[in-house]
């Protein structure tokens, strides 16, 4: 459904036994599509943490394009964008549980320092690539204690409350191939 910014109720006339509700736009407002499931949304965003550090931004890039309602975005942000339209600016605060989840203790693993290869010095805070049975994974070095290296396999944003500043640039219907693939095609999306 579409919604208009300004539709003024004008009057109701009785015509025989039928009522006709007449509505008149007081000017030719542009009617925008709102954000709903299966619509493609293009947006600019800046993501900050609780301390105000910028973690990610689409500034100086193409807008991010995603399909609403199919899990492209973290749920807490998707919920707050539902019903918004082109031109809207949204400041969304998303709790960790509605973003990348809480930090899970079982995703910390202690491994021997001798297992690491590479030129970079092993210090807490750096990210390392692991070759696992499920393929390569990125982990953060959480702690080094002698020969014991504690790796954190949580998502880097797990446990964090996130602050988004979003500007909606466009909303359109997704086409069938986009729904089949679960991602956006075209200028701001996949090319294939
Ligand atoms: Zn595709």
Automatic annotation (TrEMBL):
<keyword id="KW-0413">Isomerase</keyword>
<comment type="similarity">
    <text>Belongs to the FKBP-type PPIase family.</text>
</comment>
<keyword id="KW-0143">Chaperone</keyword>
<dbReference type="InterPro" id="IPR046357">
    <property type="entry name" value="PPIase_dom_sf"/>
</dbReference>
<keyword id="KW-0697">Rotamase</keyword>
<dbReference type="InterPro" id="IPR001179">
    <property type="entry name" value="PPIase_FKBP_dom"/>
</dbReference>
<feature type="domain" description="PPIase FKBP-type">
    <location>
        <begin position="38"/>
        <end position="126"/>
    </location>
</feature>
<comment type="function">
    <text>Also involved in hydrogenase metallocenter assembly, probably by participating in the nickel insertion step. This function in hydrogenase biosynthesis requires chaperone activity and the presence of the metal-binding domain, but not PPIase activity.</text>
</comment>
<dbReference type="Pfam" id="PF00254">
    <property type="entry name" value="FKBP_C"/>
</dbReference>
<protein>
    <recommendedName>
        <fullName>Peptidyl-prolyl cis-trans isomerase</fullName>
        <ecNumber>5.2.1.8</ecNumber>
    </recommendedName>
</protein>
<dbReference type="GO" id="GO:0016853">
    <property type="term" value="F:isomerase activity"/>
</dbReference>
<keyword id="KW-0963">Cytoplasm</keyword>
